[in-house]
Amino acid sequence: MATPAIALLDQTLPFGVGVGGGGGGGSDRLSKEIFSILESNFLFGAQALEPAGACSAGRVRVLSIDGGADGGALAAAALVRLERRLQELSGNPEARVADYFDVAAGSGAGGFLAAALFARRMPAEAARDVVAKNRKVFSGRHGRGGLFSRPEAVFRKVFGDLTVRDAAKPLLIPCYDMATAAPFVFSRADAVEAEAFDFPLWQVCAAACGVGPAEVASLDGRTRLRAAAAAGGTGAGVANPTAVAVTHVLHNKREFPFAAGAGDLVVLSLGGNAAAGSGARASSSSLLRIAGACQADMVDQAVSMAFGESRATNYIRIQGNGITAGATAEAAMAERGVESVLFRGKKLMPQTNGERLDGVAEQLVREQHRRMDSKTPVVLIKPSATPRTSSSSASTLITVSTNSSSESP
Description:
Layout: H1 2-12, H2 25-44, E1 60-65, H3 73-90, E2 103-106, H4 109-118, H5 124-133, H6 135-138, H7 153-159, E3 171-177, E4 182-187, H8 188-193, H9 201-208, E5 216-217, E6 224-225, H10 242-250, E7 265-270, H11 284-307, H12 311-314, E8 315-318, E9 336-341, E10 345-352, H13 353-372
Parallel strand pairs: 1-2, 1-7, 2-3, 7-8
Antiparallel strand pairs: 3-4, 5-6, 9-10
Helix pairs in contact: 1-2, 2-11, 3-5, 3-13, 4-5, 4-9, 7-9
EC number: 3.1.1.-
Pfam families: Patatin (PF01734)
Region (Disordered): 368-409
């Protein structure tokens, strides 16, 4: 299918006519449709091209969390806002973000947030506090000695003996293995099947943030990875895990039997604040942060195109607009949202990030109520073969800080 499309593109756009140039409205629209088809096939396979319609069994709810140049600060603030709204709408003050999503994926600091919510069932405010009190660890600005000689202690304290399979629901944390020069995804679905794919959560999250041990080993020692360490919270080189999460759902018929296309999903993707690293001096770490932000935006645009007409309701991306430099993550909730536009960069949306999150909360609660009245399960999550009873998996929450007094920027 790709060859005819490329040939058609060559015939439509004569040499010297840019696809984003002015005056080419027809070719611009055609190019957008062609690239949408190509990227949909590349990301999700032919099923994504089917008409987007709500699945009769309901929609799979996907949460994707970036690391971001701000070390997960904006994502953490967004999760707090979302959880409060879910509690208000449901009338349950004990409601948690994890109760309203079926799968979570996270990279860098986002990997920690996803694991904390889904494996520790940590309230969003508690997870935000851990990130806030250890900003240098999560943003990749920790030192190589002194107080931060063992930054992985943060993750040991939070997760204890918990492993990937202890997550209550599907959990995905992508990384890059330097030993094989290939991507690797820490996945609960794989961990439940075999200990060769089950890893200590503290090691996984530390590796995702680029502060873990040189080697990450599975419980039985059969699988070993040498995760790449990168600054800026991108950890093992994966900035935006949304495509990882969506492809996992669409190609995992055992756990998500009715998810056939984009119309059967509702995806909340939490990014970072573009203004976080705007004032940094040119350095290798700042260049890595820029590269991570570029990769995250490219994934955002490709996924948005793959959702097509349903992206307004089924795909919601929350990120800072980069205008209010130095603003807090909470202040970013009052900023107008941004949307990637093919060949046009980004545009401001009429709604603020906070208003869009409130809209997502309403969708999630409606889906929860619909499932209570339905006899058809949307997801079929396989339980762990041997549930752990370690004291580290208790519901007691721990506020962690390596040394909060030294965490000033």
